[in-house]
Automatic annotation (TrEMBL):
Listed GO MF terms: catalytic activity
Protein name in UniProt: Histidine triad nucleotide-binding protein
Domain HIT: residue ranges: 5-111
Motif Histidine triad motif location, chain numbering: 95-99
Family annotation (InterPro entries): Histidine_triad_CS, Histidine_triad_HIT, HIT-like, HIT-like_sf
Active site residues according to the UniProt entry: H97
Domain of life: Bacteria
Pfam hit, one: HIT
Length: 111
């Protein structure tokens, strides 16, 4: 999608701090981190959100990328994965992404 900021990051058209990349997915640090570690995992192909026909192979690649992020960031003591879909969840970028959050105790709120 030509006007999608995450498609541009996936295509290396705009810079990001890349943590992991393979043929299907890319992981990069969030611009406005909400935890000491806040990395986004996205499919390279454009899907609006988790319900937008994401192939099983791509979902598996994203889970693998989460593992790679956890290793690269030293999240041995745990982390949280969140994906927002739609207005009630506060989704602001309409390209499917998983937030990987960690680097401190995240507590028990949400969730
Ligand atoms: P959402 O609210 O849609 O689940 O999360 C979108 C996330 O993308 C936010 O945490 C926001 O900080 C991040 N973000 C938005 N634009 C950019 C960008 O250009 N580069 C990076 N690295 N992160 C971005
Ligand atoms: Zn996109």
């Amino acid at each position: 999608m030509s006007d999608c900021i995450f498609c541009k990051i996936a295509n290396h058209e705009i810079p990001s701090t890349i943590v992991y990349e393979d043929d299907l997915v890319i992981a990069f640090d969030d611009l406005s981190p909400q935890a000491p570690v806040h990395t986004l995992v996205i499919p390279k192909a454009h899907h609006a959100d988790i319900t937008d026909g994401v192939p099983a192979e791509t979902l598996a690649a994203m889970v693998h990328a989460v593992e790679e992020v956890a290793k690269a960031k030293g999240l041995e003591s745990g982390f949280r994965v969140i994906t927002n879909k739609g207005a009630d969840a506060g989704q602001t970028v309409m390209h499917f992404h998983m937030h990987v959050l960690g680097g401190k105790s995240l507590g028990e709120g949400l969730v």
